[in-house]
Write a structure and sequence with these properties.
With about 270 residues, this protein is mainly alpha-helical. About 75% of the residues lie in helices and about 0% in strands. α9 packs antiparallel against α10. The longest helix has about 35 residues. The protein is elongated, with a radius of gyration of 22 Å. It starts with a helix and ends with a helix. The mean pLDDT is about 80.
């Protein structure tokens, strides 16, 4: 088996692992239909091919309804984290003023010292965050780490003579930061984005599992795992289906980024040879 065949197989597997839970999450509410009559708790059959949950609701319908919140919250939190971390990291890497770099990065170090889940739970103890609040909290705890990675990656590119030449030519900060430094750091940032999205998905699911940001009986994959675990050995599908979808989405997203980076490296090698 050639390297190209293995790469194509890995990309196809990653795409499948990502696409199935993503399509269920985004299109599921459109396909769920009206709720039918409830049955007995944790039973199979009687028109419920995946069984019923802890209050007798159809598990498959809950699965169709329960992914959109997890996925959209994770994507929003990741995008918000990078929207703040990217300018902070680039500014810290490009500045020649030590005091400005300290001003930008030291407050983030303080925030980085607090465990992510602990900070979310402390905030949830003060106010009820809701879905939007949970996305903001998850983004907040990811900003320090993302900003440090962006700064470390961009600092190497910012020290090259090309950046000094651009500065001497009077190029704008935007051209230097985004046009050259950001482009040089793109591969590292893409790899970090894949890993970070995986961590954010797990963090959102864990917070929802603990009841942060969602109602206790909400149609949510993480809540389903929590609320139905008492019947795991009686009716396992109520726990297994949402858990497998969460794991498939996180694994698939990470593999997809890795496969895309591998293809980019392969294309770059071909261009270098030619």
């Amino acid at each position: 088996m050639t390297m190209r065949t293995r790469g194509s197989g890995r990309f196809a597997l990653a795409l499948l692992l990502t696409a199935v839970p993503l399509l269920i999450a985004l299109l599921g509410p459109l396909l769920a239909g009206e709720p039918g009559p409830r049955g007995a708790s944790f039973t199979l059959g009687d028109g419920h091919w995946a069984g019923t949950d802890f209050v007798g609701r159809d598990v498959w319908r809950q699965v169709l309804l329960g992914g959109r919140t997890v996925v959209l919250t994770a994507l929003s939190a990741t995008a918000l984290a990078y929207a703040v971390a990217l300018p902070l990291g680039l500014a810290a890497a490009l500045t020649h003023r030590g005091w400005l770099e300290e001003l930008l990065m030291r407050p983030l170090d303080v925030l980085l010292a607090i465990p992510s889940l602990l900070l979310i739970l402390l905030a949830a103890a003060v106010f009820s965050p809701g879905t939007a609040g949970l996305a903001l909290l998850v983004a907040l705890v990811n900003i320090p780490d993302a900003a440090r990675i962006i700064r470390a990656t961009a600092a190497e590119a910012a020290a090259r003579p090309a950046v000094e030449a651009l500065r001497m030519q009077g190029e704008t900060w935007w051209r230097m930061a985004v046009g050259y430094v950001g482009r040089s750091a793109l591969r590292t940032l893409a790899a970090d984005a894949g890993t970070r999205l995986t961590g954010v998905l797990y963090l959102v699911a864990t917070a929802a599992f603990l009841g942060v940001g969602v109602a206790p009986d909400a149609a949510d994959w993480a809540v389903m795992v929590d609320r139905n675990r008492t019947g795991l050995f009686v009716q396992p599908w109520a726990v297994v289906l949402p858990a497998v979808l969460i794991v498939a989405l996180t694994m698939g997203g990470n593999l997809l980024f890795d496969a895309a980076l591998a293809r980019t490296r392969s294309s770059a090698r071909k261009e270098t040879r030619t």
